[in-house]
Structures are given as C-alpha cells and as structure tokens.
Amino acid sequence: MLQAIWQRLPVTAELGVCSLLLSLALALPLGIYSATHRNSWIDWLVNITSLLGTAVPGFVLGLLLILFFAVSIRIFPPGGYVSFNENASGNIRDLILPMITLAAGSVAANMRQVRASMIEVLGQDYIRTARAKGISEGKIYYVHALRNALGPVLTIVGLQVGSILAGTFVVETIFLWPGVGQLAVNSILSKDYPVVQGVILLSAFSYMLANLLVDIGYVLLNPQMRFDKR
C-alpha cells in the first residue's frame, strides 16, 4: 500500500504544485490590476472570468479542453503521462491541460480574494498618508498595500490545498494521469480499502502541513505577529 502511494505521490505533487503556482501567477497580477482599475473593462472581464471559473465544474472544463485542444486543433495530447527525466518537452505538453483544469477554480477564487483585499487595504488611512507624502502609486500598490492584502489570500490558498487534492481524483481520471488520485479511484472501484485509507491519511497530512505553512507565512508577512512565549 505505502509503496504504491509513494510511487505515485511525485506525479500528483507535480500536478498540484504546478496548478497552485499557475493560480497564483495569474490571480495576483489580475486581482491587483482589477482592484486598482475598478469599473474598467478589464475589471469587468476579471469578474466575469472568475464567475465562470467558479461555476464550471472541473470535469466539464477538462472535457472541453480535450475536445478543443486535443481533438479539434491537436496541439496537446488528450491524456497520458511521461516523466520529466524521460522527456522534458513531452512532460510539459502532458501537464498543460490537466494543470489548467485543476487551476481554473483556484484562479477564480484567488482573483476575487486579491481584488477584495486590495480594495479594502487601499482605503486605509496609511495609504492616503503615503499618497500625501508623494510616494509613487507603484510603490504604494506593490510594497505597502500588497503585503497587507496577502493575509486573507494566504488563508484561501491554505484551504485550496484540500480542494486541489480532491480535484486530482477527477482530473487524473480524465487525463489518465497516473497519480494518487487515479490510484484512489481505482482502489475504490476494486474495493481496496487499505489503499483508500492511506490516500485519505495522506490528504489529511497534506492539509495540516499546508495550514502550518500558512501560519508561518503570516509571521513572514508581518513580523509583529508573534506567538506569546507564555
């Protein structure tokens, strides 16, 4: 049981970590720009995109991506996996569609949270004081405001680890990605309960580890936030 999970864990970790990084790479700049350019056409586009990303289920999005990119225009393969050590370019091509499918919901949630946090922070008194001192808008956005706005975003990211792990069950099955999620689905169908229990324990441990890292991130963002020695 442990050997089967351990062999598939790096494959799932690659998909999950890349999806989370893609989510943050898209959500942070789009959320910041949307907050600093409210009621612009980009702001409306970000809001509509976030609503669609939240509303469309992962299995529907995955099938649509396969239909368009793998069947119609044939840019990416419809499924399968090859390790990075064996074929780097093939690994990246196999990763793109499942990564987008898994990251779509996280991108939508993170964009909305970044936008809401930035709008709240930009209305604080110290931001008006910084503007009165003549500090540039870019420095206000990315140095003063963003650091304080990332707290709620870190909380959302910590909670998303559980949803990403749950999403791998569907995404890995659709794209034939040989990770822990596909192993869990196959084990459920074959009634291999020890493997199912091992996957559940792994998910719980990953969730706790993610929340521990989020708590450490709070302290790094705000050094004044320290635990009382008592």
Tally of separate domains:
1
| CATH uppermost class | Mainly Alpha
Mean pLDDT: 85
How widely separated are the two ends? 43 Å
Instruction: Tell me the total number of β-strands.
Output: 0
Outline of this structure?
The chain has 230 residues and is mainly α.
Describe the structure.
This protein is mostly helical. It has a single domain (2-221), classed as MetI-like fold, CATH 1.10.3720.10. 80% of the residues lie in helices and 0% in strands. The protein contains eight helices and no strands. The chain has helices at 2-36, 41-55, 58-72, 88-122, 125-132, 137-174, 180-189, 193-221. The mean pLDDT is 85.
Question: What secondary-structure arrangement, pairings included, does this model have?
Answer:
Blueprint: H1 2-36, H2 41-55, H3 58-72, H4 88-122, H5 125-132, H6 137-174, H7 180-189, H8 193-221
Helix pairs in contact: 1-2, 1-4, 1-6, 2-4, 3-4, 3-6, 4-6, 6-7, 6-8, 7-8
What are its keywords?
MetI-like fold, 80% helix, mainly alpha, 230 residues
